[in-house]
Write a structure and sequence with these properties.
By secondary structure, the protein is of the alpha+beta class. The protein is 26% helix and 26% strand. A hairpin with a 2-residue loop joins strand 4 and strand 5. The protein is elongated, with a radius of gyration of 24 Å.
Length: 160
């Protein structure tokens, strides 16, 4: 009817396996229409970059607890603890997302200097990170034992 000047499509209800024979679409012979396969992540360069991005995110999660850009998990990140800081530890906790858990964790940390903390949730699971100044190394184990004893705890890590 002349209302649309043109269209470009790269996602289809049924994705074509290849261009050419076998690719059927009602848009195939429309004028001013560009049809391309949905292969943005299928080039060698894209696959290499995806691999680097995933490896970088996994390494950052293991080393710092950061979960930014997670797809099915809460997103949290805190500034890095300076390598010269020997008294700050990072408490990383995954727990059931129910009322009262943060209160329990903060009660455990109340006797320490909490430098920074963050929490986020996604559905039934919540994620908590806190940087805590601990003067006596025995306190690290005490904090860990108390946080892991919370009934809603899923997993807790302490990062140095």
């Amino acid at each position: 009817s002349g209302h649309l000047a043109g269209a470009a499509v790269d996602v289809y209800p049924k994705e074509p396996l290849a261009n050419g024979p076998g690719f059927e679409s009602p848009l195939r012979n429309c004028p001013n229409t560009l049809l391309t396969p949905h292969i943005g992540g299928s080039t060698e360069e894209a696959q290499r970059m995806i691999g680097i991005e995933v490896a970088t995110a996994a390494t950052k999660f293991v080393n710092t607890g950061a979960s930014i850009n997670a797809v099915n998990f809460a997103e949290c990140d805190l500034r890095a603890i300076p390598s010269t800081d020997r008294t700050t530890v990072r408490i990383v906790n995954v727990h059931q997302n129910v009322p009262g858990v943060l209160r329990q964790i903060n009660n455990i940390l109340a006797d320490y200097n909490v430098n920074k903390q963050i929490s986020d949730s996604k559905g039934d699971v919540a994620y908590f990170m806190a940087d805590v100044t601990v003067e006596d190394s025995k306190d690290i184990n005490t904090i860990y034992e108390h946080v892991t004893a919370i009934g809603e705890n899923i997993i807790t890590r302490v990062l140095f």
